[in-house]
Write a structure and sequence with these properties.
mainly alpha, 0% strand, rod-shaped
């Protein structure tokens, strides 16, 4: 191993005077005291303002809670069923009345259609032959039979039959409803054009 010479510490000028730590801390504390006092005063003012605001809000909050409780009690005290049942009953009567009127009008229209087909059966005989005239008379009888069947039943029986039909064949019912809706739309559109 090789010996290396030791280096001598470098000489420095005069050592600086170092203030004692206690004196420095005391100076900082003296300078921070006004800041601490100002922050404490601001915090106290904010706390006082918050208390004042809280004191103002408390009665309003209490009134709102009382009003909400009173409203809830009034809602619970109302017998909603007693109010709804008469309206439901009236709506049922109105619907049944409208269905009865529609049934009567439909029956009359079907009777008129039956008469029209029967009246034109003679013309069909003359122009197309007696075989087609017989078809027209059979159609007239079928329409007249349906009209008589419709007239003989009350609205409740018709509704029950309609429900049964829809349960048994929903696809046909949807198709029939679509066709009827289309026809009604065309009729309504035609009447709007004339007005």
């Amino acid at each position: 191993m090789v010996d290396t010479p030791e280096t001598q510490p470098a000489k420095r000028g005069r050592p600086a005077k170092v203030k004692p730590v206690d004196d420095t801390m005391a100076a900082i504390a003296v300078k921070a005291e006004p800041l601490k006092t100002a922050a404490t005063e601001k915090a106290a003012a904010a706390e006082t303002a918050a208390k004042s605001l809280s004191d103002q809000i408390a009665p309003i909050k209490e009134q709102a809670e009382k009003a909400a409780k009173a409203a809830a009690e009034k809602l619970n005290a109302v017998d909603w069923k007693a109010h709804i049942d008469p309206i439901k009953e009236q709506a049922g009567k109105t619907a049944k009345s409208a269905a009865g009127i529609a049934k009567d009008k439909t029956g009359t229209a079907m009777q008129n259609l039956s008469k029209l087909i029967a009246d034109t059966a003679g013309t069909v005989d003359a122009k197309l032959g007696p075989q087609y005239g017989d078809y027209a008379r059979q159609a007239a009888e079928q329409v007249a039979g349906a009209a008589n069947s419709l007239d003989s039943k009350d609205v409740d029986a018709l509704m029950a039959e309609a429900r049964d039909f829809v349960r048994k064949s929903p696809a046909v019912a949807i198709g029939a409803a679509a066709v009827v809706g289309f026809v009604l739309m065309r009729l309504a559109k035609g009447s709007d054009d004339k007005a």
